[in-house]
Specification:
Layout (H helix, E strand, L loop, with lengths): L1 E6 L2 H7 L3 H8 L4 E6 L12 E2 L9 E2 L1 H11 L4 E12 L2 H9 L4 E5 L8 H6 L3 E4 L8 H13 L32 E2 L2 E2 L9 H19 L1 H6 L1
Parallel strand pairs: 1-2, 1-6, 5-6, 5-7
Antiparallel strand pairs: 3-4, 8-9
Bound molecules: adenine (ADE).
Adenine binds next to strand 5 and helix 6.
Length: 226
């Protein structure tokens, strides 16, 4: 998978991508990851990426030209241009699975800022808008990182997971079952017996039940949706 990120804060993305799943995916050769400074595609001497909104109002709006120039230079036939915006399609595990299953895709993430994008960018040069939740962040960097992280952990061979044949399974949409590690007894707080006995089918059943119980208790809306 190839991912390009266009941002006015390249260091923010680069520093995050040095660790964890980003690093693993790059090292395993599963991910070709490139970060670009949007200012590279500006044409004026101040390297301006934003300007005042027509019609007045507070804040600044991201200009069309630099983003258009960036996309034109980076895109190929396989590219899908993504903007993280609060009005986009809500992100879900199912959506991440779709994005991740598109293994040899080339995703170009454009990180918005200020009061947002000039609408002509969204209408003409962006293929998908994705929202990571009903709240407003100050920029698209964190949202893009959230989306990319969610995609990468589903790629085959990144976390040692082979591609799941039951990708849309009920379990994938459930909350996690509880996990424990050593010690077996911490100040009288004990690890559930079943996990210590080594009976794998019993453990699988216990985990499945716990995941369902957890989801029903904490997120009944997910159960209803699935
Ligand atoms: N940019 C700012 N807020 C956002 C959100 N909630 N989701 C995606 N991108 C955003």
């Amino acid at each position: 998978m190839k991912i390009d990120v266009i941002t006015i804060f390249p260091e923010q993305i680069e520093s995050f991508a040095k660790f964890g799943i980003f690093r693993i995916a790059k090292e395993k050769g599963v991910l070709d990851f490139n970060v670009h400074d949007l200012r590279k595609w500006t044409t004026d001497k101040h390297k301006s990426v934003d300007d005042k909104p027509y019609g007045g109002g507070a804040g600044m709006v991201l200009k069309v030209e630099p983003i258009y120039n960036a996309i034109e230079e980076l895109k190929t036939d396989k590219s899908i241009v993504i903007a993280a915006t609060p009005q986009g399609t809500p992100l879900s595990q199912k959506y991440l699975r779709e994005l991740s299953d598109n293994n040899d895709a080339h995703y170009i993430f454009i990180c918005g800022h200020y009061e947002g994008f000039d609408q002509r960018i969204l209408d003409n040069y962006i293929d998908v808008e994705i929202s990571i939740g009903d709240y407003i962040l100050s920029g698209g960097e964190l949202a893009s990182l959230v989306i990319i992280d969610g995609i990468l952990r589903l790629l085959p061979n990144v976390l040692g997971n082979s591609q799941s044949p039951v990708s849309e399974s009920f379990t994938e949409n459930m909350l996690e079952y509880p996990q424990y590690t050593r010690p077996e007894d911490f100040k009288g707080l004990k690890v559930p017996e079943v996990l210590l006995r080594g009976n794998h089918s019993q453990i699988a059943l216990w985990r499945d039940n716990k995941a369902r119980e957890n989801t029903l208790k904490k997120r009944p809306d997910i159960v209803k949706k699935v």
